[in-house]
Amino acid sequence: MKIHQLEEIEKVTSTPEFENALIDAIADGFVAFSAGKFNAPPIQTMGAPPMGKFSCADVGDNVDSSKEYAAQVCIKSGYITGADAFVVKVASGGYPLPSNSGCIQVFSQKTGKMEALLMDEGILTELRTAAAGAVAALCLAPVDDIKQIGMLGTGIQARYQLRFLKHVTDCRDVLVYGRTPENVTKYVEDCEKEGWTVTVVEQPNDLLDNCELIVTTTSSREPVLGVDWKYTYDSLTPKYGTDPEGRPRGEIPLQHITCIGSDAPGKAELSLDLLVAAERAGGWLVADSKAQTAERGEFQRTDPRILGHRSVEPTSTGWRVAELGKVLQENAHIMSRSRGEMNISKQEKMPISIFDSSGVAVQDCVIADMVCSALASSKEGGKEGVVGGGGGG
Fold first, then answer.
1. pLDDT tens digit string along 65-100?
2. Which CATH class name applies to 140-359?
């Protein structure tokens, strides 16, 4: 068995070539997932409601009681039928844990023995999540018409989302909203070093008013985006007169929202009013997993105003949500490696699309396989572990 430390892993994952390949591989993984080729037991989530809080929540010298508790550990596992390995991923993070952490264990499907231990400290989860956001943007966002990207949140995933969006859109203008001024300032400084032009907005809904692509990356348990936002169901258009370019609000371009933060029961970033308005306006509601989004994603809440007009089987909470893998599978032409063709919004002309990423274990399988292959072909051999057998990483 091979044990690979973070430094080794970062060497093979921090290239544009790896990132581009990961976007394509994650898209293929979603297709396999929706085609029923992926096998996964239920997700385990610890430290978050309805379970008790971790002891790190105890107020002390290192805990700011004014900050919202968000610590949790998720354990996701599974395997693709016919593949060589199965994986078990442990990932932790959220205040007041000092930092994200975790590892991915890679086992042989043939022997049951562990073949590799990727001590990635949670970075691979960040990468595969950001790659999913890029796949959703490629498929659902008006990528050729994006003038401004809106970012809700200023944490590590908000940085990785921009890192991967560089591969799918030429837009480099970002509007950001965050609750903590010092974190916002640091985010702006970091992103501008990477070539982004970043403007801070005063309200979350400023992103809805001005951005064609919005990404939400908070750990909120109360809706943040779309709260008290004024719009009509028919056009999903704010009643604010004209936009900054003088166009009537009824002429705003197509808009896409990728929701990253809601990944556990009780979490929510989008208001129900916004979700209902999108559904009633004929927009696409899409998720990585229909079952998970109803359990732990944005669509775990229900609402009597849902129309259910699309010919899509509803989730257990009543939303007509399509799975991204099925959307990709049924529109095989958008799987072309020509990124300009990989977009449904151009064909459907939908007023808005919303993608909810609660995180599926097939993403962990995909990135673990890519990392193990990259490590095996590099000169980094890893360190022999204490568990025998199973072969190399």
1. 667 788 889 999 999 999 999 999 999 988 888 677
2. alpha beta
Residue pointed to by tokens 């919202």: 68
Q: Torsions phi, psi of 82, nearest 5?
A: 90, -5
Cα separation of 361 and 123, whole Å? Answer: 15
List the domain boundaries for the chain: 2-125+362-384, 140-359
**CATH (one of 1.10.760.10, 3.30.1780.10, 3.30.70.3550, 3.40.640.10) for 2-125+362-384:** 3.30.1780.10
Q: Are 75 and 89 in contact (CB under 8 A)?
A: yes
How far is 140 from 372, CA to CA, in rounded Å?
Answer: 31
Q: How many Å separate Cα 49 from the centre of its chain?
A: 21
Neighbours of 340 (CB within 10 A): 10
Pair of tokens at residue 295: 């359990």
Supply the pLDDT for residue 392. 29
The three-class DSSP label of residue 197 is strand
Closest CA to 27 of 168, 145, 197: 168
Stated as kind and residue range, the H or E segment containing 216 is strand 213-216
Neighbours of 336 (CB within 10 A): 10
Residue reference for tokens 């442990």: 90
Tokens 């943007």 correspond to: 137
Which residue type sits at 18? Answer: F
pLDDT of 237-266, one tens digit each?
444 344 445 544 444 447 999 999 988 888
d(C-alpha 31, C-alpha 34), whole Å: 5
